[in-house]
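re: that chain from earlier
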Amino acid sequence: MTKSGLIDLISEKANITRVKAELVVTTVFDSMVTAIRQGHRIEVRDFGSFEVRHYNPYKGRNPRSGEVIEVPEKVIPFFKVGRNLKRQVNGKTPKEDKN
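^ sequence. v structure.
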């Protein structure tokens, strides 16, 4: 699903204009990006969580030349899928199979 498809779906389900649905989607995504940039963790129950992972600098190797290179410190957003979403993707209802 694309962002545009999500906007269309929200517009239809909520019975609101596409412009209002686009504002909702954009506001949610912008708020999530702001929170992640500030180092906050976002948890959406039954869906998953977003957090920032910090990686220290290290020495890597250029695969073409074999030259040793310095890889700088980096901060990467990470998504961890929630248990109920994982179950639903696998065809189970959230209440089925508590394992």
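The chain has a mean pLDDT of 92.
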